[in-house]
Amino acid sequence: MFKSARIKLTAWYLLIIMTISFSFSGVIYRASTFELDRVERAQRQRVERGWPERFPAIPFDQQGDLPRFFRLDPAIIEETKNHLILFLVWVNSIILVTSALAGYFLAGKTLAPIENTLEEQKRFIADASHELRTPLTALKTSLEVALRDKKMTLPDAKKVLDDNLEEVESLKLLSDKLLSLARYQSNGHNLAFKEVDIKGIVEKAVK
Known about the structure:
Oligomer: single chain
Number of helices: 4
Shape: rod-shaped
Number of strands: 0
């Protein structure tokens, strides 16, 4: 479950990062190509404004355009744009791989506390079920034995009830401890220490 969740979270991280990266790449490409076109137009205008006073001996070419050495070659501009595209693709590929690795690592770090909490809940449920089963089994066994005893007298019945009352008290004590454990987990694991009677605890455990 957590492995698939980690992959999904990594995919979301990657989607966000690559959306930002592609957006910036588009802005960079548009700005760069706009600047190239602007420089070409500016160069053309400067030459045309100075023509023919500054260069009277150099005629236009046969198509009526500026000489090649007075303007940027469109092929060079197109090649520069293609190189820019390749560079942006290369950069985005590196970002993609790096983001995937970093996103997978961060997704694991993000899900680790949730996974630990879930494991604690599973252990808590298993331990609580085990602890509750013990006094309940004792109650059930005592009552079944008492019901099958056809010669049971009133004092015997009272003794069975007294024993069962002790088991009920054990259940109540266990529920109180479970509530204390829940409060301990919710208040940042701050413990309140107090003195206890070791002899009484041992005797109760032996019983």
